[in-house]
Amino acid sequence: MTMRLAALMLILSASPALASSETAWQQFRQDVETACTALAPTEGQTAIEVNPFGSESYGAALLITTLADGAADRYVCIYDKQAGTAELTAPFTPPQDVVQPMAAPAGNVAPIEDTRTDAHLVKP
Asked: What is the pTM of this model?
């Protein structure tokens, strides 16, 4: 009998985490947004996108701050579900390997025509 009671207690203690209500998830998202908004830079305008569920232990949000010169800084806000606290990363630096589009040909140079087909994608 004691073994059954222990198993029942274990199952019941795990069920709230497995069956969170939509209201609980909405509250979680609001908590993440509130905590991350408090950490947002004061310069510029910041948009916040909260990950709907986070991970098992953490919530996450992406913050994009548009500055007066048109540049944008990107941050990640990490929310500790257990402690109810948040931290903000330093801004990301722009990627260095961004491929720029090729400039239009100069003069009388004709563009190269792409003659490839999708035939290689079709299985016999």
From this structure: 0.62
